[in-house]
Amino acid sequence: MSFHESPVTFVSKIEILVMDIERCRSFYRDILGLKLLMGTESKAVFSADGEAPLLTIEKAGEVVEKKAGSAGLYHMALLLPERADLARFLRHMLKRNYPLQGASDHYVSEAIYLADPEGNGIEVYIDRPADIWQRDEGEVHMTTEPLDANDLLSDGNDKDWEGMPAGTVMGHIHLQVLELKETERFYCKGLGFNLVNRYGSQAIFVSSGGYHHHIGLNTWQSRGGEPAEKKSPGLKYFTLVLPNEAKRDNTLQRLKEMGTSIEETTGGIFVQDPSGNRIKLATA
């Protein structure tokens, strides 16, 4: 089963605001290895396969400084097709001498962490087979252990890194939120996700279709903070793809009954979580 296509609800793409569009464009194309689908002086759209957008960066107009401890993007997570792809990516980053922020074994996955030139967090990862994940009463067991980089690098020696492979998808998004109680209610009761892991007392993970997580939510740096300013650099919105229009209509009805504001524009239907993170609701 694919965890990133209908009938699963999943994150398909992310849009962020940046201050230096040229510097960020160069990073995502030349270092991260995404393909530039469309570019103007103020916007760049990136893809892995040359067709489906994964990430849009847009130049912030009237820049409002992002406040420390505010809600927003913790990291976006690009899921590669094969372990050999992650090995080639790690080898590529080491050759480029690009600073990494971490490398972890989460039991369900192996992950490398870094940030773009403006501090937007990025995870590049691969999943282990879902049939070996440990589940307990609906929760998926996840850990954070050091990645065995030597073992990983022994894979993928057959060819060099040639950019993000065509099968790369936006595996999940991890958000900074201001609290967890109403956040859990919004994502589970409202959007229809299942809670699949409580990671200590300050983070939860939710998913659809039994995935280890499509969305991570934490208060590690943002508890009691403020929503991000709409014009400040960072997350503008992310797109959730629901299986069909009936599923979306039912979701919108639940959100309305919960008192959530629904914004219908020519660009789509948008909602905000309790911390002000903006979400576009699309259909497969």
TrEMBL record:
CDD domains: VOC_BsCatE_like_C. The keyword Ribonucleoprotein does not apply. This is Catechol 2,3-dioxygenase. One of its GO terms (molecular function) is dioxygenase activity. It comes from the Bacteria. Keywords: Dioxygenase, Oxidoreductase. The keyword Iron does not apply. Residues 10-127, 169-284 form the VOC domain. PANTHER family: CATECHOL-2,3-DIOXYGENASE. InterPro entries: Glyas_Bleomycin-R_OHBP_Dase, Glyas_Fos-R_dOase_dom, VOC_core.
